[in-house]
Amino acid sequence: MSTNYDVIVIGGGPGGYVAAIRAAQLGLKTACVEKWIGKEGTPALGGTCLNVGCIPSKALLESSEKYEEASSHLGTHGISTGDVSIDVAKMIGRKDQIVAGMTGGIAQLFKANKIDWLQGHGKLLAERQVSVAGHDGVETTYQAKNVIIATGSTPINIPSAPLTDELIVDNEGALNWETTPKRLGVIGAGVIGLEMGSVWRRLGAEVVVLEAMDTFLGGVDQQIAKHSLKEFKKQGLDIKTGARLNNTVVGENELTLEYSDKDGDQTVTVDRLIVAVGRRANTIDIADESVGLALDDRGRVDVNDKLETNIPGVYAIGDVVRGPMLAHKAEEEGVIVAECIAGQNSTMHYDAIPWVIYTDPEIAWVGKTEEQLKEEGIAYKSGSFSFAINGRAQAMDKANGLVKILADETTDRILGMHFVGPMASELVGQGVIAMESQNTAEDLARTVFAHPSLSECIHEAAFSVDGRAIHGVNRRKK
């Protein structure tokens, strides 16, 4: 194995492994440093996303949704199933198989692209050198012409709920329980909290979610957020906003959560607790102090528009830099940086990055919310359409939710597209394409959509922007 490379990537998560593959495709001699040890005790690529994040959580969401559908919702289709049971350990095993298959697939891609996988902890040294402390304790130094920092993020811990091996866990621990708790507490009503809370509620847990913010899903368009909250509460998720955890008392087999809300001090007793209050950039020990790597006021690696750090030839991407902590954002940044290193003038548009919460109903959006447009003083018009009127959604027994389109008052350019309802995670891609293509609401209104399909709601919402939805009652213009 060589010790000199055109590119060394520190971190093998979505941003890092994609950057390495793209760099290798462009003819650059490439290595990728990754220290992750998988559940089976062997080195693994894929970082948080593939090992304990995006992929395993979606596997559990899918399994738990099928269980709930079979046990509670098939009767409306005329299907009788009798008693339905869930083997939680087998469900977890299936999740682990999916993870192993995908991380192994990345290793195969590295081999196919002649990328060297340097297993261990990577650290940036002066003159674009990278030291790798291997799992065997041996430290090796490598030289690179360019270095890409892609070290991702780690969960934020809170002193009021210190993690334990089993009772108090973060997202990783919540993916590995092989029994369903009777009473589950979740701290944080964000993406992870809602998704993992949904998994265990479907499997029979009584779930209480404590959210310190007064507003539910404050970064989401509030029309969408309010509809989502109503549905989650119908399902049995007990979501308490404005509830700040003060202390966790650990008993022999239960936990007492002491929190404060608008009514004063409160307590609730649970059997297990998931802490999901957010993530922070992983910048601990990624660079020697002598290097002088600049961080911003939030502890992230400071980069310019080309994702270059203050050190020539050193770049940073993904969760470790500014912008949303999303795997697909990291992947695209990885492609951009690899191409820039190869001499291409590649750029990325940050105003059309989709967000998804994989609950039921799914929540997805791209672009500006109505609240952001008001705050920024941008004149806009809005159109929406309900899945309740959509034939495909009714046939799926998922006729709940809506599509909302925000367009510029003057130019009609689409500024945002928001979804709550069936397959929102797939439909939002149409909004991304529309925004990247600088489409107007009229462009979508004049586009033919298949019938019957869920995407017809996008078509109707586009018509609704100018008060001419065909299959719904239009709001009167003031």
From TrEMBL:
Cofactor: FAD
Binding-site residues, FAD: K58, G122, T151, G152, S153, D319, M325, L326, A327, H328
Record-annotated disulphide pairs: C49-C54
Location (main, coarse): cytoplasm
Keyword list, A-Z: Cytoplasm, Disulfide bond, FAD, Flavoprotein, NAD, Nucleotide-binding, Oxidoreductase, Redox-active center
InterPro entries tied to this protein: Class-I_Pyr_Nuc-Dis_Oxidored, FAD/NAD-bd_sf, FAD/NAD-binding_dom, FAD/NAD-linked_Rdtase_dimer_sf, Lipoamide_DH, Pyr_nuc-diS_OxRdtase, Pyr_nucl-diS_OxRdtase_dimer, Pyr_OxRdtase_I_AS
Enzyme Commission identifier(s): 1.8.1.4
Keyword Heme belongs to the record: no
Record's subcellular location: Cytoplasm
Any one GO cellular component localisation term in the record: cytoplasm
A GO BP annotation: 2-oxoglutarate metabolic process
Domain FAD/NAD(P)-binding: 5-334
Main EC class the enzyme belongs to: oxidoreductase
Further remarks about this protein from its record: The active site is a redox-active disulfide bond.
Record family assignment: Belongs to the class-I pyridine nucleotide-disulfide oxidoreductase family.
NCBIfam families, per the entry: lipoamide_DH
Name of the featured protein: Dihydrolipoyl dehydrogenase
Source organism of the structure: Leucothrix arctica
